[in-house]
Design brief:
It is a single chain. By secondary structure, the protein is mainly β. It has 2 domains: 1-38, no CATH class; 48-90 and 102-135, Immunoglobulin-like (Sandwich), CATH 2.60.40.790. The chain is built from 2 helices and 7 strands, in the order ααβββββββ. It is rod-shaped, with a radius of gyration of 25 Å. Belongs to the small heat shock protein (HSP20) family. InterPro entries: A-crystallin/Hsp20_dom (IPR002068), HSP20-like_chaperone (IPR008978), Small_HSP (IPR031107). This is Hsp20/alpha crystallin family protein. Residues 39-149 form the SHSP domain.
Length: 149
């Protein structure tokens, strides 16, 4: 049935009244990237895995297509922030453009690591996976025996 291809925000009889160009645009929308609900970095955020080991945290963030210079890391009061920014443009000066697209992606994720030490944090980007190793600081003793004189 043809009405199944019509996006929900169009009236049913728009297809018959507007002609072939609108029908073609509707098909372009239908088969466009991201239809119906495909996950992507452009419309979503990146995945983070967090391991809590005895002496350190290991954070893995999936960042396919990002370079080191497009990633920013910071640790402030136990809050690890991973931010990414990417701008994609192609310069072609010998063409007469009717339509041209540019893509800009910016995302931020925060992870709270209560006993994270700010020294000796290591980060490595390999095959689109950013691995961050955050050592834990020694926990202060909360109970102390007091000697009586």
């Amino acid at each position: 049935m043809m009405t199944a291809l019509i996006p929900f925000n169009r009236k049913r009889n728009d297809l018959m009244n507007t002609g072939f160009n609108d029908f073609q645009n509707m098909l372009d929308d239908f088969f466009a990237e991201g239809w119906p609900m495909r996950r992507s970095l452009a419309g979503d955020t990146f995945k983070i895995d967090l391991q809590d080991n005895e002496k350190e945290y290991i954070v893995e963030a999936e960042l396919p297509g990002f370079q080191k210079n497009e990633i920013s890391l910071s640790l402030e009061e136990g809050r690890l922030q991973i931010a990414v920014k990417k701008e994609e443009t192609k310069e072609e000066t010998d063409k007469n453009y009717v339509h041209r697209e540019r893509k800009f992606t910016a995302m931020t994720r925060n992870v709270f690591l209560a006993d994270a030490a700010s020294d000796d944090i290591k980060a490595k980007l390999t095959d689109g996976v950013l691995t961050i190793t955050v050592p834990k600081q020694a926990k202060p003793e909360l109970t102390k025996q007091i000697e009586i004189e």
